Request: fold
Amino acid sequence: MESRSCVLITGAANGIGRATARLFALRGCFVGLADIDCAGLTRLVDELGASNTLAMPLDVSKPDQWTAGLADFDYRTGRLDVLVNNAGILISGRLEANPLARHHAVVDVNLKGMLNGCYLAKPYLSATRGARVINLSSVAAVYGQASLATYSATKFAVRGLTEALNIEWQDDGIRVMDIMPMFVQTGMVTALDARIIDRLGARLTAEDVAQTIWAAAMYQGSFGRVHWPVGAMSRWLYRLTRLGPDRLNRFIAKRIAS
Reply:
Protein backbone atom coordinates (compact mmCIF):
# COMPACT_ATOMS: atom_id res chain seq x y z
CA MET A 1 0.00 0.00 0.00
CA GLU A 2 1.26 3.48 -0.89
CA SER A 3 2.04 5.75 2.06
CA ARG A 4 1.96 8.89 -0.08
CA SER A 5 -1.19 10.55 -1.41
CA CYS A 6 -2.65 8.89 -4.49
CA VAL A 7 -4.57 10.77 -7.17
CA LEU A 8 -6.43 9.44 -10.19
CA ILE A 9 -6.79 11.85 -13.13
CA THR A 10 -9.00 11.26 -16.17
CA GLY A 11 -8.08 12.84 -19.48
CA ALA A 12 -4.50 12.73 -18.21
CA ALA A 13 -2.63 12.32 -21.49
CA ASN A 14 -3.01 15.91 -22.70
CA GLY A 15 -3.82 19.48 -21.75
CA ILE A 16 -5.08 20.18 -18.24
CA GLY A 17 -4.89 16.52 -17.24
CA ARG A 18 -1.25 16.21 -18.22
CA ALA A 19 -0.29 19.47 -16.50
CA THR A 20 -2.09 18.31 -13.36
CA ALA A 21 -0.40 14.92 -13.42
CA ARG A 22 3.00 16.58 -13.73
CA LEU A 23 2.32 18.92 -10.82
CA PHE A 24 1.02 16.22 -8.47
CA ALA A 25 3.90 13.87 -9.33
CA LEU A 26 6.43 16.70 -8.83
CA ARG A 27 4.96 17.31 -5.38
CA GLY A 28 5.33 13.71 -4.31
CA CYS A 29 2.02 12.04 -5.17
CA PHE A 30 1.42 8.74 -6.89
CA VAL A 31 -0.68 9.43 -9.99
CA GLY A 32 -3.09 7.20 -11.88
CA LEU A 33 -3.14 8.36 -15.50
CA ALA A 34 -6.45 7.54 -17.19
CA ASP A 35 -7.17 8.30 -20.85
CA ILE A 36 -8.20 6.78 -24.17
CA ASP A 37 -4.90 8.06 -25.65
CA CYS A 38 -2.65 5.11 -24.84
CA ALA A 39 0.35 6.54 -26.70
CA GLY A 40 0.05 9.75 -24.70
CA LEU A 41 -0.12 7.77 -21.47
CA THR A 42 3.04 5.87 -22.39
CA ARG A 43 4.92 9.10 -23.00
CA LEU A 44 3.76 10.55 -19.69
CA VAL A 45 4.74 7.42 -17.74
CA ASP A 46 8.18 7.57 -19.36
CA GLU A 47 8.46 11.22 -18.30
CA LEU A 48 7.20 10.89 -14.72
CA GLY A 49 8.50 7.40 -13.97
CA ALA A 50 6.81 4.04 -13.58
CA SER A 51 7.35 4.13 -9.81
CA ASN A 52 5.24 7.29 -9.59
CA THR A 53 2.46 6.50 -12.05
CA LEU A 54 0.03 3.90 -13.31
CA ALA A 55 -1.21 4.06 -16.91
CA MET A 56 -4.94 3.33 -17.08
CA PRO A 57 -6.50 3.06 -20.55
CA LEU A 58 -10.03 4.31 -19.88
CA ASP A 59 -13.06 5.47 -21.81
CA VAL A 60 -14.90 7.33 -19.05
CA SER A 61 -18.26 6.71 -20.70
CA LYS A 62 -17.87 2.95 -20.11
CA PRO A 63 -18.74 1.85 -16.54
CA ASP A 64 -17.08 -1.54 -16.96
CA GLN A 65 -13.78 0.14 -17.80
CA TRP A 66 -14.11 2.30 -14.69
CA THR A 67 -14.72 -0.79 -12.55
CA ALA A 68 -11.64 -2.56 -13.91
CA GLY A 69 -9.44 0.54 -13.75
CA LEU A 70 -10.38 1.39 -10.17
CA ALA A 71 -9.70 -2.19 -9.08
CA ASP A 72 -6.24 -2.06 -10.71
CA PHE A 73 -5.51 1.30 -9.08
CA ASP A 74 -6.58 0.06 -5.66
CA TYR A 75 -4.49 -3.10 -6.04
CA ARG A 76 -1.45 -0.92 -6.79
CA THR A 77 -2.04 1.78 -4.16
CA GLY A 78 -4.58 0.65 -1.56
CA ARG A 79 -6.00 4.18 -1.37
CA LEU A 80 -7.66 6.96 -3.38
CA ASP A 81 -7.05 10.41 -1.93
CA VAL A 82 -8.15 12.51 -4.91
CA LEU A 83 -10.26 11.73 -7.97
CA VAL A 84 -9.93 14.40 -10.67
CA ASN A 85 -12.73 14.08 -13.23
CA ASN A 86 -11.06 16.04 -15.99
CA ALA A 87 -11.90 14.15 -19.21
CA GLY A 88 -14.07 16.23 -21.51
CA ILE A 89 -14.84 17.07 -25.12
CA LEU A 90 -16.19 20.19 -26.76
CA ILE A 91 -18.16 21.06 -29.89
CA SER A 92 -19.11 24.53 -31.05
CA GLY A 93 -21.45 26.34 -33.40
CA ARG A 94 -25.21 26.61 -33.49
CA LEU A 95 -27.03 23.63 -32.01
CA GLU A 96 -28.28 22.37 -35.38
CA ALA A 97 -24.85 22.73 -37.02
CA ASN A 98 -23.54 19.56 -35.38
CA PRO A 99 -24.94 16.03 -35.81
CA LEU A 100 -27.08 14.85 -32.92
CA ALA A 101 -24.61 12.03 -32.32
CA ARG A 102 -21.91 14.60 -31.51
CA HIS A 103 -24.14 16.24 -28.90
CA HIS A 104 -24.78 12.83 -27.36
CA ALA A 105 -21.02 12.18 -27.26
CA VAL A 106 -20.45 15.41 -25.32
CA VAL A 107 -23.06 14.32 -22.77
CA ASP A 108 -21.59 10.82 -22.58
CA VAL A 109 -18.07 12.04 -21.81
CA ASN A 110 -18.59 15.27 -19.88
CA LEU A 111 -21.57 14.25 -17.76
CA LYS A 112 -21.93 10.48 -17.79
CA GLY A 113 -18.16 10.04 -17.56
CA MET A 114 -18.03 12.14 -14.41
CA LEU A 115 -21.11 10.41 -12.97
CA ASN A 116 -19.53 7.01 -13.61
CA GLY A 117 -16.37 8.09 -11.84
CA CYS A 118 -18.11 9.49 -8.78
CA TYR A 119 -20.47 6.54 -8.42
CA LEU A 120 -17.94 3.77 -8.91
CA ALA A 121 -15.10 5.43 -6.98
CA LYS A 122 -17.22 6.07 -3.89
CA PRO A 123 -16.20 2.88 -2.01
CA TYR A 124 -12.51 3.66 -2.53
CA LEU A 125 -12.95 7.28 -1.52
CA SER A 126 -14.87 6.28 1.59
CA ALA A 127 -12.03 3.99 2.62
CA THR A 128 -9.46 6.83 2.41
CA ARG A 129 -9.40 9.42 5.18
CA GLY A 130 -9.87 12.97 3.90
CA ALA A 131 -10.58 11.94 0.30
CA ARG A 132 -11.98 14.38 -2.22
CA VAL A 133 -13.38 14.60 -5.73
CA ILE A 134 -12.45 17.48 -8.01
CA ASN A 135 -14.62 17.88 -11.12
CA LEU A 136 -13.75 20.07 -14.10
CA SER A 137 -16.58 22.49 -14.69
CA SER A 138 -16.34 25.84 -16.50
CA VAL A 139 -17.51 29.43 -16.41
CA ALA A 140 -19.89 28.15 -19.10
CA ALA A 141 -21.81 26.83 -16.08
CA VAL A 142 -22.68 30.28 -14.74
CA TYR A 143 -24.93 31.23 -17.68
CA GLY A 144 -25.70 29.19 -20.81
CA GLN A 145 -23.22 29.97 -23.60
CA ALA A 146 -24.46 30.47 -27.14
CA SER A 147 -22.55 28.38 -29.71
CA LEU A 148 -21.44 26.08 -26.88
CA ALA A 149 -24.93 25.01 -25.82
CA THR A 150 -24.43 21.31 -25.16
CA TYR A 151 -21.00 21.77 -23.62
CA SER A 152 -22.44 24.49 -21.39
CA ALA A 153 -25.36 22.24 -20.41
CA THR A 154 -23.00 19.45 -19.35
CA LYS A 155 -20.98 21.86 -17.24
CA PHE A 156 -24.16 23.05 -15.50
CA ALA A 157 -24.82 19.38 -14.74
CA VAL A 158 -21.28 18.97 -13.40
CA ARG A 159 -21.87 21.97 -11.17
CA GLY A 160 -25.18 20.63 -9.90
CA LEU A 161 -23.90 17.14 -9.15
CA THR A 162 -20.84 18.61 -7.45
CA GLU A 163 -22.99 20.75 -5.16
CA ALA A 164 -25.29 17.86 -4.33
CA LEU A 165 -22.53 15.34 -3.61
CA ASN A 166 -20.61 17.86 -1.52
CA ILE A 167 -23.62 17.80 0.82
CA GLU A 168 -24.41 14.07 0.54
CA TRP A 169 -20.86 12.92 1.14
CA GLN A 170 -19.86 15.33 3.91
CA ASP A 171 -20.80 12.76 6.56
CA ASP A 172 -18.38 10.37 4.84
CA GLY A 173 -15.62 12.97 5.07
CA ILE A 174 -15.40 13.32 1.28
CA ARG A 175 -15.15 16.83 -0.15
CA VAL A 176 -16.56 17.35 -3.66
CA MET A 177 -15.52 20.50 -5.52
CA ASP A 178 -15.37 21.82 -9.05
CA ILE A 179 -12.92 23.95 -11.01
CA MET A 180 -14.33 26.73 -13.20
CA PRO A 181 -11.82 28.10 -15.70
CA MET A 182 -12.37 30.34 -18.71
CA PHE A 183 -11.04 29.01 -21.99
CA VAL A 184 -7.62 27.40 -21.70
CA GLN A 185 -4.77 27.26 -24.20
CA THR A 186 -5.18 23.58 -25.12
CA GLY A 187 -5.97 21.66 -28.27
CA MET A 188 -9.63 21.49 -27.25
CA VAL A 189 -10.28 25.15 -28.12
CA THR A 190 -8.49 25.10 -31.49
CA ALA A 191 -10.71 26.17 -34.41
CA LEU A 192 -13.85 26.51 -32.30
CA ASP A 193 -16.79 28.33 -33.84
CA ALA A 194 -17.84 30.48 -30.88
CA ARG A 195 -17.69 34.27 -30.71
CA ILE A 196 -17.09 34.23 -26.97
CA ILE A 197 -13.62 32.77 -27.58
CA ASP A 198 -12.87 35.52 -30.11
CA ARG A 199 -14.05 38.12 -27.61
CA LEU A 200 -12.39 36.83 -24.45
CA GLY A 201 -9.60 34.67 -25.83
CA ALA A 202 -7.93 31.66 -24.25
CA ARG A 203 -5.76 33.44 -21.70
CA LEU A 204 -5.27 30.64 -19.18
CA THR A 205 -2.69 27.89 -19.49
CA ALA A 206 -3.16 24.27 -18.48
CA GLU A 207 -0.64 24.93 -15.73
CA ASP A 208 -2.83 27.73 -14.33
CA VAL A 209 -5.71 25.29 -13.97
CA ALA A 210 -3.45 22.60 -12.51
CA GLN A 211 -2.36 25.02 -9.77
CA THR A 212 -6.00 25.63 -8.83
CA ILE A 213 -6.68 21.88 -8.79
CA TRP A 214 -3.73 21.47 -6.42
CA ALA A 215 -5.06 24.24 -4.18
CA ALA A 216 -8.46 22.53 -4.03
CA ALA A 217 -6.83 19.19 -3.28
CA MET A 218 -4.90 20.70 -0.37
CA TYR A 219 -7.74 22.87 0.99
CA GLN A 220 -8.67 22.19 4.62
CA GLY A 221 -11.29 24.89 5.20
CA SER A 222 -15.07 24.80 5.21
CA PHE A 223 -17.04 22.28 3.16
CA GLY A 224 -18.95 25.34 1.98
CA ARG A 225 -16.22 26.24 -0.50
CA VAL A 226 -17.33 24.24 -3.53
CA HIS A 227 -16.57 26.26 -6.69
CA TRP A 228 -13.05 27.32 -7.67
CA PRO A 229 -12.95 29.85 -10.55
CA VAL A 230 -9.56 30.09 -12.26
CA GLY A 231 -8.14 33.51 -13.06
CA ALA A 232 -9.41 37.05 -12.55
CA MET A 233 -11.91 37.01 -15.42
CA SER A 234 -13.47 33.76 -14.23
CA ARG A 235 -13.77 35.05 -10.69
CA TRP A 236 -15.36 38.29 -11.93
CA LEU A 237 -17.95 36.53 -14.09
CA TYR A 238 -18.76 34.03 -11.36
CA ARG A 239 -19.32 36.73 -8.75
CA LEU A 240 -21.25 38.97 -11.13
CA THR A 241 -23.73 36.26 -12.12
CA ARG A 242 -24.26 35.33 -8.48
CA LEU A 243 -25.23 38.92 -7.65
CA GLY A 244 -26.89 40.10 -10.85
CA PRO A 245 -30.50 39.52 -11.93
CA ASP A 246 -31.17 37.02 -14.74
CA ARG A 247 -31.86 39.83 -17.22
CA LEU A 248 -28.43 41.36 -16.61
CA ASN A 249 -26.72 37.97 -16.75
CA ARG A 250 -28.41 37.19 -20.06
CA PHE A 251 -27.36 40.58 -21.45
CA ILE A 252 -23.73 39.98 -20.51
CA ALA A 253 -23.75 36.45 -21.94
CA LYS A 254 -25.30 37.69 -25.17
CA ARG A 255 -22.85 40.58 -25.52
CA ILE A 256 -19.77 38.38 -25.21
CA ALA A 257 -21.19 35.70 -27.55
CA SER A 258 -22.38 37.91 -30.41
